[in-house]
Specification:
six-stranded antiparallel β-sheet, alpha+beta, single chain, five-stranded antiparallel β-sheet
Length: about 350
């Protein structure tokens, strides 16, 4: 199962727009259920043949915001492959451990000083079947497995040695932008400028004390979360049910996917730097023990929960339990701030 287009959106503000925003989806083509034969044929067309219109060809393998892109320019034999780096997406530091960087190096990648990505050039390239296998292997050994199936996409870009990229500090930062895609922040030229993380101007309010009725308060919060989770799970048809649970600036958001399953995210300090004193490395480890993926697949901590038709009540209870624990273990005493719940219905982007 793949995430709905635009999921992994990060901040809750302007939720209606951000939830349905298609990032690197429109204009990148892929089959709903591609076969190995169709993928190899696509790789041949995009990377091993010159486009009659003189465009550059692009193939991408991605898992959330983690990506490996390979591209080819007309009248050239070289194929250039790039893997996501921390300059374009600073949150990749969570997944790009020392061991995984070493694994990318063993595959022939080197750190590119110009873009901050990892780069490998093939001249001559291996046959298409081996190249797509290499891309999938690089994604897995370099960034870990999320439990989702990698997505293979392809497109065209204006032929240039230094193509337009998504600007640093944004989802897919550092990725080449194909034709037909509207990206708000882009970077031109051969050098990708990093974006400094100065944090937010405003600091968090003081940590709330633990109230005397903490047990009763958390129990009531659980009931509120469970009711909203059940509502999300009950969504049918082409529309997505979305619930956002907020404790001040801290939030958790959930959306029903099409499997059926439910995808939930816990805010991270990467999307809201002012939260870093609370959502620190220790809090991240606690969230990972609850089954959440570290930022990299998304900007936030993400988890995909199954929704079995014959065990929906059991599954929704387990989801509510996990979300309540995530708030308590991730947000500290800020979990005792008033809980607000927003419910939205959003049609998936076409």
């Amino acid at each position: 199962m793949r995430q709905p287009a635009g999921w992994g959106m990060g901040a809750k503000r302007g939720v209606g727009a951000s939830l349905v925003l298609v990032l690197l989806c429109t204009g990148m083509a892929w089959a709903k259920e591609p076969t190995a034969e169709s993928i190899i044929k696509t790789v041949q067309t995009q990377l091993y043949r010159d486009d009659p219109e003189g465009r550059g060809g692009l193939v991408e393998v991605s898992d959330g915001y983690k990506f490996v892109q390979c591209r080819h320019l007309p009248r050239q034999t070289v194929i250039t492959c790039e893997a996501a780096g921390t300059r374009g997406q600073p949150w990749m530091r969570h997944v790009l451990t020392k061991e995984r960087r070493a694994a990318l190096k063993e595959l022939g990648f080197t750190a590119d000083r110009q873009t901050g990505n990892f780069i490998r050039r093939w001249d001559p390239p291996p046959e298409p079947k081996l190249l797509i296998g290499f891309m999938i292997q690089a994604l897995e050994v370099g960034y870990g497995k999320s439990g989702q199936d990698p997505m293979v996409r392809h497109g065209w870009f204006p032929a240039a040695d230094c193509p337009v990229r998504v600007a640093a500090g944004n989802p897919y930062g550092g990725a080449v932008v194909p034709l037909g895609i509207t990206v708000r922040y882009t970077a031109e030229g051969c050098h990708l400028e990093g974006r400094d993380d100065d944090g937010d101007d405003d600091s968090l309010p003081p940590r709330p004390p633990r109230p005397d009725d903490a047990t009763d308060l958390l129990s009531q919060q659980y009931k509120t979360i469970a009711e909203a989770v059940d509502w999300v799970a009950g969504g049918t048809g082409p529309e997505h049910h979305i619930a956002i649970f907020s404790w001040g600036d801290f939030y958790i958001q959930c959306m029903k996917a099409e499997d059926p399953s439910m995808q939930c995210e816990v805010v991270s300090g990467d999307i809201m730097p002012r939260l870093k004193p609370v959502l620190n490395a220790a809090a991240g480890r606690r969230l990972e023990k609850l089954g959440f993926l570290e930022p990299g697949y998304s900007l936030n901590y993400a988890q995909n929960f199954p929704l079995r038709r014959d065990a929906r009540d059991k599954d929704t209870k387990a989801i509510a339990d996990t979300l309540a624990q995530a708030a308590q273990q991730g947000f500290g005493t800020y979990v005792f701030l008033p809980l607000e719940v927003e419910r939205h219905t959003s049609k998936p982007a076409k």
